[in-house]
Design goal:
single chain; 204 residues; mainly beta; disordered C terminus; PITH_dom_sf; PITH1-like
Length: 204
């Protein structure tokens, strides 16, 4: 399911709606079949920069439009919708399949696995379309893998922008792990004053 904006972005702070890019662990973003190594990182940016081409774009290898993009987050997120801005002349992706909290997926895995959700995409050159998720399935997302099987007839697939709308937890994943460790009971911390003698004894 896709929808268009029903408001003027000058009056509504769209950038804050699509601010999950700030929670992407950009250094660990990767893609399979990208023509330029590391170019997948360039498509994650602020909403107001989504149509800017100066920062580069993601493109598949010539004659093979399939792309697989792995996106890890610095904290668990809830994803409400996804926006994809593709390339011109039939190079926009025509379909999207997503997998959640699965690392190391390759093309063979993507073709054989059941996606959490799939969308038939439209050519969205102006960045006005967004695709709603089945929100209940997109809770506690630590990473997401985006599978673009094909383009609109182009020899390659081009992607200029990928945006996620949703919410992030306030704590980073490594901070949460530290807190879990620290709340484990430590027997040496559980001491009580004895009723006689005024000393301390360890609780059994």
């Amino acid at each position: 399911m896709s929808c268009t904006h029903d408001h003027n972005c000058e009056d509504h702070e769209c950038s804050s709606d699509w601010s999950l890019y700030k929670h992407i662990d950009l250094s660990k973003v990767s893609a399979l079949n990208e023509s330029v190594s590391g170019s997948a990182k360039s498509v994650f940016k602020a909403w107001e920069e989504r149509l800017q081409s100066s920062g580069g774009h993601l493109e598949s290898n010539e004659g093979d439009p399939e792309l697989l993009v792995f996106v890890p987050f610095t904290s668990d997120v809830k994803i409400k919708s996804i926006s994809i801005v593709g390339g011109p002349e039939g190079t926009s992706p025509s379909k999207l399949r997503v997998f959640i909290n699965r690392e190391g997926i390759d093309f063979s895995d993507a073709e054989s696995m059941q996606a959490v959700q799939e969308w038939e995409l439209a050519e969205n050159l102006q960045g006005v379309l967004e695709y709603q998720t089945r929100y209940s399935k997109f809770q506690s997302v630590g990473n997401i893998t985006l599978h673009f099987p094909e383009s609109f007839g182009g020899d390659t697939t081009q992607i200029r922008y990928i945006g996620f709308k949703g919410e992030a937890t306030q704590l980073k994943r490594d901070v949460v792990a530290t807190i879990v460790y620290e709340i484990r009971p430590n027997p040496s911390d559980h001491k009580t004053k004895a009723e006689t003698g005024g000393g301390f004894s360890q609780v059994e």
